[in-house]
Specification:
By secondary structure, the protein is an all-alpha fold. Helices cover 79% and strands 0% of the residues. It is built from two helices and no strands. Helix 1 packs antiparallel against helix 2. The chain is elongated, with a radius of gyration of 14 Å. The protein starts with a helix and ends with a helix. The mean pLDDT is 83.
């Protein structure tokens, strides 16, 4: 049950972060290179969250 809740929480957080990052590209005044740092930070945050949740077992 704990793995399921961890997976569900991670999935919802990833969906939120991806939705937040893609919302920025809706404006015609904001180009791809303006949003590129946001995509990089979101990718790092998602990687760290998944690594902490599933692979960091000490």
């Amino acid at each position: 049950m704990q793995k399921f809740t961890t997976f569900l929480g991670s999935l919802l957080a990833i969906a939120f972060l991806v939705g937040l990052a893609t919302t920025l590209t809706r404006s015609t005044m904001i180009g791809f290179f303006d949003v590129l740092p946001v995509y990089i930070l979101m990718a790092v945050a998602i990687f760290m969250m998944v690594y902490e949740a599933f692979f960091d077992k000490k």
